[in-house]
Amino acid sequence: KQWYQRRVRDISSELGSISNTKTSFTTAYRVSKAALNMLTKCQASEFIKDGIVSLSVHPGWVRTDLGGPRAPLSTKESVEDIAYMITHCTEEHNGMYVRKNLVPEPY
Description:
Layout: E1 7-11, H1 27-47, E2 53-57, H2 75-88, E3 97-99, E4 103-104
Parallel strand pairs: 1-2, 2-3
Antiparallel strand pairs: 3-4
C-alpha cells in the first residue's frame, strides 16, 4: 500500500487543547483528550517510518448526548467532515491536531 492509504485517526476535542484552556470545566474529559493528542504525536513519530500518517481530529460541536441539543452540527455533518479529513490528509499533516477542512489547531 502507498503511505497515504495507511492512517491512524484519533477523535479528539477542542477541549483537549492545552493552549486554549481557560476554565476547569469537564476536567477529566479535557485531560483524556489532551492525553489522546499526546498519543497522536508519539504515534506520528513512530509510525511514519512505516508509511502510516497519524492525525488527531476535532469533530466539531456535535448534537449528541454529550454535545447537547444546542450544538450546531448533526452527527451526519460531523461524520462527513471526519471522512473528508481522513481521505484528504497527506504526509504533511502527520502528527497534527486539526478541525474541519484540515485546519490546524493548537495543542
